Amino acid sequence: MKIERIELQQLHMPLRFRFETSFGSTVMKDLLLVSVYGEGGVGHAECVAMPDPYYNEETTETAWHMMERFLVPKLFANPIETPEDVDRLFAPVRRNNMAKAVLEGAIWDLYSKQKGISLAKALGGEKSVIDVGISIGIEPTVGQVLDKVERHLGEGYKKIKVKIKPGFDVEVIRSIRERFGDDVPLMADANSAYTMEHLDVMKELDQYGLIMIEQPLAHDDIIDHAKLQKELRTPICLDESIHSVEDARKAIELGSCKIINIKVGRVGGLTESKRIHDFCQAHDIPVWCGGMIESGVGRAHNIAITTLPNFTIPGDTAASSRYWEEDIVEPGVELVAPGQMAVPDRHGIGFTVNPRAVGKYVIRSVNFRP
């Protein structure tokens, strides 16, 4: 595979609404779009790093620096035959997983296009349709959360994820159950907002039949999560704590979780995502694909990885129109049936990047050549 040019663009895309989590709120998505050109084709991927180091240690600025200073030069200086070569090439660079993932993802897209197959097929996926859920942020009132739950249930989403934080947790979950009943597939996402001192809150949440409580404790913890899981019937799902298949192995062996959320950017790419998927499948740990408020490019990669068989829980890949007035891909990433998305069968990610739309949002760009 000959890489002839790599284009890095920074975009500012305004969200249709404010999205709040326990660590902050977002109204403008700051994203990096990477395009890798070679042998007449182009592959695209999206870096999911945020402008501030609150979800993890990376930011859009650090990811840009890592690509420019270290990762892109490695790609030009070494032969690349398959996307797995990129994973091995980047292995000596510690962490910086989101910077690694976006370059590897663009090469996965280019590779699958050159092979004349979809990205899903290149990864080994076989599904033609995937189930998807919705993520609802922290709102000023419980009533506003209930209104959003009602609307998204009407749209047929297969899982309702609600963000929680101390002081905005038990009441909102209880209110959802009282209004919509016990059959709604409901989960709570804490984004590391709690400690073991909140055990009483966790035990209150435990009575509401949740699918899972996601990452209740520290972003780098697997020890206290194991202690907490022993106290709860509700499965704990780990997100921020899992950066590699080794992290997954240790967490599973310790009993720190019963479910794992695989985010391609967080774990360093599609190759590592497959490894984690395979390990979890072998140990009867279901997985699902979390979201990072991606544009259609990132959503396309999420759809592709979700076609692997152990992705048995609906992910966060909701319709683009929920977030954007205009996405940067054509066609839009939209539901084809209530709570379902079709897996593209076109080559690569299956969506075309719209340069006019990109031009509306781009604030910085650079091209790298060998």
Detailed description of the structure:
There is one protein chain. Helix 2 (83-90) runs antiparallel to helix 3. Helices cover 36% and strands 21% of the residues. The protein has a 7-stranded parallel sheet. The chain has 13 helices and 15 strands. The protein folds into 2 domains: 5-116 and 352-365, 2-Layer Sandwich (Enolase-like, domain 1), CATH 3.30.390; 122-342, Enolase-like C-terminal domain (TIM Barrel, Alpha-Beta Barrel). The protein is α/β, with parallel strands linked by helices. The mean pLDDT is 96. The longest helix is centred in the N-terminal third of the chain and has 19 residues, at 97-115.
**Count of β-strands:** 15
CATH class of the largest domain reads: Alpha Beta
The CATH architecture classification of the largest domain is: Alpha-Beta Barrel
Into which percent range does the helicity of residues fall?
A: 25-40%
As for the number of domains, it is 2
* Structural class by secondary-structure content: alpha/beta
What is the helix tally?
13
How do the strands of the widest beta sheet line up side by side? Answer: 5-6-7-8-9-10-11
Short note summarizing the structure:
With 370 residues, the chain is an alpha/beta fold. It has 13 helices and 15 strands.
List keywords for this structure.
370 residues; alpha/beta; 15 strands; 2 domains; Enolase-like, domain 1; TIM Barrel; seven-stranded parallel beta sheet; four-stranded antiparallel beta sheet; 36% helix
